[in-house]
Amino acid sequence: MSVRIEKITEPLTLGEGPHWDERQQALYFVSIQDKTIHKYVPTTEKHTKTSLDGRVGFILPVEGTTDQFVVGVERKFLFIQWDGEDGSKVAVLKELGEVDKDRPNNRINDGKADPRGRLFAGTMGHEDPPGNFERNKASLYKLDSAKDGKLEKIIETVSLSNGLAWDLKEKAFYYTDSMQFSITKFDYDVDTGEISNPRNIFDFKQRGLQGIPDGTTIDTDGNLWVAVFGGSCVLKINPKNGEILQKLAIPAEQVTSATFGGPNLDILFVTSACCNVGKEQLPPSGATFMVTGLGVKGLPNVSVRL
């Protein structure tokens, strides 16, 4: 079976955070700078979106619901309701917390739920001009419903929080601060959600790789699929030895994230951007892509437990 890459949306300024909802067989994602949340249903090819009041870093379904989500908007985590229809109004049901209050120019970036439904989400430093980030002023946070839903700062001195993935077999949590140009592995306790013992397992600079590591997903073999912003690709990496197993070329330079989805979790959905960084990004840059024929399967995306 040959690999096929298909464009499924028109370009967005900064497409990010793809999440496959098994319950609805739909892909959710965001366009950060456009301040929009998106839904795409492969069986109907229906693509809908609506706007929020601020830059949105991620959208994650809430467990047991079909129209409720947690989103990260600017520096706030919000519990919202959206019926998934194009242009329909979003209701903010509750503010779950505000982070980086001492850093008003920061914003929330990537976020995911761990295998138990705890929210892990991070921030990034102020970006001005595009591509130039304030360093070491952001953090990674955890929100655990089993601990009264309080936000807990778990990693500090971050520049650009990205790349969240978990492997229960290896008791591992993988994390990326993109401005460190490397992927970090932590020991992970699924019962408590605690992380410990960080070590660098893959360094872009040492390997002479172009671009920076962005969003990350994981397959059932424990291999990481890492979107490379500025590298026009997704890298398949064995985290045990750092071997690059595959370089999946994407027809967009600014590849931002990836996740597995579809009925059999064997389709890789890839988001991209067309930001004004360096040179003009021409279509299909910024589009969301669907990749089939990879011969691997991913792990189910987890909804947030509130």
Q: List low-confidence stretches.
A: none
Cross-sheet strand order for the largest sheet = 1-24-23-22
Distance between the termini: 41 Å
What is the CATH topology? Neuraminidase
Structural class: mainly beta
Q: What is the CATH architecture annotation?
A: 6 Propeller
Largest sheet: 4 strands, antiparallel
What is the count of DSSP helices, taking H or I runs of 4+ residues? 1
Helix-strand sequence:
EEEEEEEEEEEEEEEEEHEEEEEEE
Characterization of the model:
The structure is a single chain. The protein has 306 residues and is an all-beta fold. The chain has a single domain (4-292), classed as Neuraminidase, CATH 2.120.10.30. Helices cover 1% and strands 51% of the residues. It is built from one helix and 24 strands. The protein has one helix at residues 204-207, and strands spanning 4-7, 15-21, 26-31, 36-41, 46-51, 56-61, 68-73, 76-81, 91-98, 107-113, 119-124, 138-143, 151-158, 161-167, 172-177, 182-188, 195-203, 212-218, 224-229, 233-238, 243-249, 254-261, 267-273, 289-292. The protein is globular, with a radius of gyration of 17 Å. Residues 14-273 form the SMP-30/Gluconolactonase/LRE-like region domain.
Features:
single chain, 306 residues, mainly beta, Neuraminidase, 4-stranded antiparallel beta sheet, EC 3.1.1.17
Provide a brief overview of the structure:
This protein is mainly beta and 306 residues long.
